[in-house]
Each structure stands twice: as C-alpha cells, then as structure tokens.
Amino acid sequence: MTFKTKESRLLLVLGSFFVANAILSEFIGVKLFSVEETLGIKKFDINLLGVPNLSFVMSAGVLTWPIIFIMTDIINEYFGVKQVRFLSILTSILIAFAFIVVWGSMHLSAADFWVHQKINGEDLNMNNAFAGIFGQGMWIIVGSITAFIIGQLADVLIFHRIKKITGERALWLRATGSTLVSQLIDSFVVIFIAFYLNPQYHYSWQMVAAIGLVNYTYKFIVAILMTPILYIVHTIIDGYLGKDLAHKLIKMAGRG
C-alpha cells in the first residue's frame, strides 16, 4: 500500500504522533516534577481526605498526554471509532514490546569504561542510573497500560455518544467532554493498580483517592486550556483536505 491520497497521509501522520507520544509518555513518566515550583509559585500544601501536604506533583508524562488526546479526538472525528480502537490496541502492544526490549537491555553486561562517568561534576554509576530510569516496576507498567486502554476506549465511546446528539456542531463539547471523562478514569486506574494493589506500596484508598483527585484537577485544567489548540489543528486539517473531502470523512466517521 502506498500513501498517495491526502486522507491516507493524514492518518499516517496522526497515527505516528499518537503512537510516538504514547510511548514517550511511558518513558519520561518516571520523572516526577512539582508543577508549582516549575511555575515559580509556592506549593499549595493541600489537605484532602485526611491526607496532608499534597501538592501538584505530576509525572513528566503529562507533557505528552494532551497531544495524545488531541490526536485521539482528531482521528475520531475524521476516521471513526474503529481506527482509534485499532491504534489504541496497537500502541498498547508497542508499549509492552518497548518495555520488554528495555528489560533485555538492562540485563546486558555493561562496558567497564561506560559504567563510571562524571556528569555535571558528579560521579555516577551509569548502569545503576540506566536501571533506575528505565526499570519501572511491573505493577506500574501494568497499571499504565491498563489505564491507557480503558481511557482510550472510554474516550472514543463518549466522543461518539455526544456526536450523535450534537451532530457536527460543538466539537469542543465532544472532544473536551470525552477527554475529561477518560482522564478521570485514567487518573484513578493507574494509581489503584500501581500503588493500591501493589503489595510493595499498598496505599490506603484515601491516599489513592486524594492523589487521583489532585492529578485529575491538573489534567482537567490542561484539557480546558487545550481546547483552542484542538480547533487550530482542526482548521489546519480542513485546509489540507479541502472542505468537501473533510466533510465527507467526518460524515463517514460518524457512521462508526
């Protein structure tokens, strides 16, 4: 198959960004950062459900998830639910494959000259650093992949349910609405599996709920702020496809 038509090239580009950002999110997600300190403001120090000193500590994976969900909604809009489901399942398989490859690379015998290096004036054991960064626990991996699949399936289902009511109007409602619900699911599923079911941590349900609510608050705000970006991308794609082809694809996608 060759990508000669505008719609096939568009699907290739959107699908590539979707897969690439999902895999990136998994690997950069091991880094936790303070949203408040990054913005140069004081930590909020929230007390929620009896859990004190909560602040907006997020996984670096949140940098790419808005792109993933914009790609999800755009692919949903122009190509339909079946394409999003296929890409979601394919991406989950590729994420699992990537972790298997990383697991194998961690068990390679490191070269002596590479292990001990000085980075920014500090002596580091590169082999330990590599394992620490890429060697995420199995519970976290399972939780992350499970949350991704459930969140994506919920997103496409809600997107089309809203579209059946609004038709081609109110793109912001079906796109942002589906993202907000899917991210609510994602925020709690990954924490529940990775830290509540995991015997290594076994967080209380209050801890899971509190952390999940704080994380979702951040994602809620970002999802709202990303709505104008969705319209910009939609306008660019309409310009690329042309009005007639864009309308034809949207109409066909709406049939399921």
Automatic annotation (TrEMBL):
Q: What parts of the sequence cross the membrane?
A: 49-72, 84-106, 138-159, 171-197, 217-241
One GO cellular component term, please give it.
plasma membrane
Organism domain of life = Bacteria
Keyword Cell membrane on entry: yes
Question: Keywords assigned by UniProt?
Answer: Cell membrane, Membrane, Transmembrane, Transmembrane helix, Transport
| GO MF annotation terms | transmembrane transporter activity
Q: Where in the cell is it found?
A: Cell membrane
Q: What does this protein do?
A: Involved in the import of queuosine (Q) precursors, required for Q precursor salvage.
Question: Which family would the database say this protein is a member of?
Answer: Belongs to the vitamin uptake transporter (VUT/ECF) (TC 2.A.88) family. Q precursor transporter subfamily.
Q: Which PANTHER family match?
A: QUEUOSINE PRECURSOR TRANSPORTER-RELATED
Report what the protein is called: Probable queuosine precursor transporter
* UniProt source species: Pedobacter zeae
